[in-house]
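wait is this the right file?? whatever heres the structure
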């Protein structure tokens, strides 16, 4: 009986200290997607990416226009050309088509690489802002919560530090 009572006292004491520790340790969350979409720094990253994509699209559109012109010329003159001349035009068209497809793939990869690099740089700044806020406010941990929940299934809005992170990020981008 004494052993059971002693065991019960130890368990209760352990539970009480665990609850007290849990109350003093803060866990926050941030909506990184919202920071990207709403902060000045995030909007700047997105604008730069859009500009970059547009310049690459213009190159592709120019090449595509040249291909269409060549194809139209081939169809218009096809019946007038000798079989040898027609074959040469078709070979020229096929060569330009292959070049166009290769260039489109290369530019697409270039755009994807640029997006990855831009987001990597943004995430580094985001993580630094989160770290500074977490250390300043005594957060044990900060999780990412996107609009669909992300890795946080439930949270009190009072633990949301997204606005603080956006403010910190924007204040640093002014410098």
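ok assuming it is, sequence goes like this
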């Amino acid at each position: 009986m004494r052993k059971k009572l002693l065991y019960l006292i130890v368990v209760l004491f352990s539970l009480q200290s665990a609850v007290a520790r849990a109350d003093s340790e803060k866990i926050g969350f941030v909506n990184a997607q919202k920071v990207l979409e709403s902060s000045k720094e995030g909007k700047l990253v997105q604008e730069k990416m859009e500009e970059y994509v547009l310049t690459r699209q213009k190159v592709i559109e120019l090449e595509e226009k040249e291909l269409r012109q060549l194809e139209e010329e081939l169809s218009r003159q096809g019946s007038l050309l000798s079989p040898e001349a027609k074959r040469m035009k078709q070979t020229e068209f096929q060569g330009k088509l292959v070049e166009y497809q290769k260039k489109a793939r290369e530019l697409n990869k270039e755009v994807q690489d640029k997006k990855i690099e831009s987001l990597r740089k943004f995430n580094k700044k985001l993580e630094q802002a989160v770290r500074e806020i977490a250390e300043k406010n005594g957060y044990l941990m900060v999780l990412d919560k996107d609009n669909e929940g992300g890795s946080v299934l439930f949270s009190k809005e009072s633990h949301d530090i997204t606005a603080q992170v956006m403010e910190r990020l924007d204040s640093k981008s002014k410098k």
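The chain has one domain: 25-173. so i think its the right one actually
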